[in-house]
Backbone:
């Protein structure tokens, strides 16, 4: 299913997007050495409920997971990169943490992810990985405009990742979003330009470049959800929900302070 939002629905999407971004920024500030991943999950639950919104994850049960997910946020640490199931783990100094959050409010969903180092100053390698995903995300957003093809976005993202020397996994990537969290079209993190669905105003997309330091192969934890690098290498993940407008792309998942 591919949805094209009306102007009224787009206004609601902006509200959801800011909520997701504000929650992520709050959690980033509160996630310090000693913070438990289950505590982060509880904080996310409290903020989602207080905003009159719903989690997209609690009842999420796709074919690739051991569902339902049962938590309010994905928390991936170090070599974990996607679908990190919150568990009883206290963050250590130097941990690389990815928070991935999707929320539904006013009938419209938004999805975003951030990676950062907890405690000490990040290592140059971690800094490079995180910065690479952020550059790739900006490149994908810059390529998003009416008349562009999904392949144009994939190519823009993949060009940045490849130029930085990172292997690219195409099993999981960006996606359409709207009244539900995951919709068509699928947006791989590398691809050929000029291919795929043609972008139209009112289309919402979640772009999410993610990388592992030295492999493109994922392994799944016994929890049935958490995906890790097969080599145990560190990982990074950045994501925004964007709306295609008449002139380009609008980032919906910016925090209130940045949107003002």
Residues:
């Amino acid at each position: 299913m591919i949805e094209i939002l009306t102007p009224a629905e787009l206004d609601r999407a902006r509200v959801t997007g800011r909520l997701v971004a504000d929650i992520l920024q709050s959690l980033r500030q509160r996630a310090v050495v000693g913070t438990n991943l289950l505590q982060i999950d509880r904080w996310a639950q409290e903020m989602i409920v207080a905003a009159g919104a719903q989690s997209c994850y609690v009842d999420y049960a796709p074919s690739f997971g051991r569902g339902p997910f049962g938590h309010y946020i994905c928390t991936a640490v170090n070599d974990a990169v996607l679908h990190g199931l919150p568990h009883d783990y206290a963050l250590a100094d130097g941990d690389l943490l990815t928070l991935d959050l999707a929320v539904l409010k006013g009938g419209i969903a938004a999805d975003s992810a951030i990676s950062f180092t907890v405690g000490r100053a990040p290592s140059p390698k971690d800094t490079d990985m995180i910065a690479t995903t952020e550059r790739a995300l900006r490149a994908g957003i810059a390529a998003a405009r009416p008349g562009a093809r999904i392949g144009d976005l994939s190519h823009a993202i993949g060009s940045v990742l490849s130029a930085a020397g990172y292997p690219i996994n195409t099993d999981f990537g960006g996606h359409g979003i709207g009244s539900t969290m995951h919709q068509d079209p699928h947006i791989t993190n590398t691809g050929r330009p000029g291919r795929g669905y043609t972008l139209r105003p009112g289309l919402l997309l979640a772009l999410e470049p993610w990388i592992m330091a030295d492999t493109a192969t994922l392994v799944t934890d016994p929890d049935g959800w958490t995906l890790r690098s097969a080599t145990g290498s560190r990982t990074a993940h950045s994501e925004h929900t964007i709306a295609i407008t008449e002139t380009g792309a609008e980032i919906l998942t910016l925090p209130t302070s940045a949107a003002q």
